[in-house]
Amino acid sequence: MNSRERLLKTLNHEEPDRVPVDLGGIVTGITKVAHRRLREHLGVEGREQIIDRIQQLVKPDEKILERLEVDTRYVYLRASRDFQDREFPVDVYEDEWGVRRKRVSFYYDIVHHPLKDATIQDLERMRWPDPHAVSRYEGIAEEVRYLHKNTDYAIILNTIGSIFEFSWYLRGYEQFMMDLLINRGFAVALMEKMLQFQIGMFEEILDRVGDYVQVVLCGDDLAIQTGPAISLNLYRKLVKPLQRQLFESIKERLPAKFF
Question: Where would one find the signal peptide in this protein (predicted)?
Fold first, then answer.
């Protein structure tokens, strides 16, 4: 049984020959420092390639993936060439959404929320990142087709799909939580903007490679250490309908497993 068959069998709730091994995604990743130490321990030469600046996650070296018998291979979206991160003193940068982050230790914390004092009218005036920017997807189709044709690994699209979490990135966590209770019109309008970006991004990537991948990753952050971040009633009323729209849009273009 090869890696692709192993993962698909598992996702179909059938018993594989062994438990599939996964490494390399946003939620199953490895940080720059940990990867460097592992690489040195295994005697693998190379350098770390950052795939997530915020968490300092890197693309695992192929030799390490082979050594650990990892069954998956991730394909990552590219950055848009329409915007370059703005760099500030003391290891602070601003991304294409206008969110500023400062490195505090092994990762970056948000220090500026661009929509902290915004109104619904400001949302309409804001220049939003373009999910249809061609540079985000350059080379991905070729990479996926190569992996599909020349390897037996399970191919996973390392997409995000966040609606709730990305919204409070822009608004601020405390303010967005208050919006959900006392300024719901704004909260929903902001999440709808995020929804449209995510739908556009998934349309672009899945139209290119949807037939060749086994799994599409779509995640959000709706919980804290002790349980849900908001009440289940609030989630079902405000967040879930938007997620349903996103998931239905993805499934229209996707024969693969989706989680």
Answer: none
